[in-house]
Amino acid sequence: MSARAAILARLQSPAPDASQAAALLGTPERPAVDATNLLSEFLARLALPSVNASHDVIASLTDLPAAIARYLADQHEPLTLCCPPDPRLDVCDWSAFTLHATAAPDETATLAIARTAIAETGSLIFETSPTAPMLPNFLTLHHIVLLPVAAIAAHLEDAPLPGPQPRAHYWITGVSGTTDIEGTYVRGAHGPRFLHVILLRDEFPHISDH
Fold it and tell me: If we measure between CA atoms, which residue out of 96, 98, 189, 107 comes closest to residue 142?
């Protein structure tokens, strides 16, 4: 039998059992996630080598500058930060920092605010707006992300964002990396080399509610 005939014969074979197909569609396979402890589930994914991110946890938004200062000190970096023009951050005391809103091509550290996160994969979801420019998040060496704990969702299917929709949103799962160069893993090849997530336990309103 020729290859063509074999392919046509398979196409003419009986259709799959409808009940089996329905069962597969009705119970999609996905990693188990403890919905009662999404923070621990998310942190476990952040620690995976494929994500390779560090984290800190703060109680209130006013603790954010100190948390960023700790991280930058541990990395032996100056207290210089590309900070989005988000009015929700105005309650923070940034007096110890040199802040700017426009990122340089060799930016050292950038702060961004994640709209939500996915415990299943350790992914962060961001939205774009005049108060949340996208470009700085790809130019920086250290990507520092503020994430409200209450914004963590269990699975990818839970990702659709409620409320006002941004012009665009984008997902980040771990640091940038590639093995294109002689099969050797190179970290930060297409973006940030370091990802640090600061989890906020307190309430944090959406920018549209501010």
Answer: 107
Residue-wise burial string across 12-26, b where 16 or more C-beta atoms lie within 10 A, e elsewhere: eeeeeeeeeeeeeee
Report the C-alpha gap between 154 and 110 in whole angstroms.
27
Query: Which tens digit of pLDDT belongs to each residue from 187-206?
Result: 767 789 999 999 999 998 87
Residues in the chain: 210
Return the SS3 of 126: strand
Digit-coded pLDDT (tens) for 95-137:
999 999 998 888 999 999 999 999 999 999 999 988 999 989 9
Cα angle, residue 125 at apex, residues 156 and 107 outer, rounded to 5°: 145
Question: Is residue 149 within 8 Å of residue 116, measured between CB atoms?
Answer: no
Task: Report the alpha-carbon distance of residue 55 to residue 43 in Å, rounded.
Answer: 8
27 by Cβ neighbours in 10 Å (0-12 / 13-18 / 19+) ranks as exposed
28 CB neighbour count, 10 Å cutoff: 8
102 CB neighbour count, 10 Å cutoff: 9
Q: What is the pTM of this model?
A: 0.83
**Does the pLDDT value for residue 164 go beyond 80?**
no
